[in-house]
Structures are given as structure tokens and as C-alpha cells.
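Comment thread on ticket #2218

A.B. wrote:
> Attaching the input chain for the structure job we discussed in standup.
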Amino acid sequence: MQPPDSDVILQRILAYWYWAGLPLGRERELKALAITRQALQQQQRPALEVAMQAARADLPSDTDIPPAAPPLRRGSLRYGAY
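C.D. wrote:
> Ran it. Output below, let me know if you need it in another format.
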């Protein structure tokens, strides 16, 4: 069974901010919930795309943008040890 869109969006936002090095307190969690709600309420674009753009825009300007995924390693592609 596939998880609800709201779960996926909320987890992605919080993970993105965590990877960016932001502290995840109550205020940050409430902001993530608000972004998730706004993204699900609009109908023009995919909700995840809207939510991630809003999460990126909420980063402080001096924060490095984290990669979308962890770096690939040879072992993760089953090429053997490196």
C-alpha cells in the first residue's frame, strides 16, 4: 500500500531541512505542516513540487542547498568494493 501524499510531502520537507542543517523544533514542524497543507490544496501543479519549492524558499539565504539524494557509491550499484 502506498503512503498518503501528505505523509510523503511532510517527510520530504523535514528531511530536506534536516540535511540542510536546520534545527527541527516545533516551529519548523508547524511550518512544514502549513506548507504541506498549502501544497495539497492547490490544484495547478503536483503537490510535491509545490511543497519542495516552498521548503527551499524557506531556507535562510546563507544555507547551502542540500543534494536531492545521498551520493552514489560503487557498492550501492553492486559494482563491488572500491
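A.B. wrote:
> Thanks. Noting for the ticket: The longest helix spans residues 26-41.
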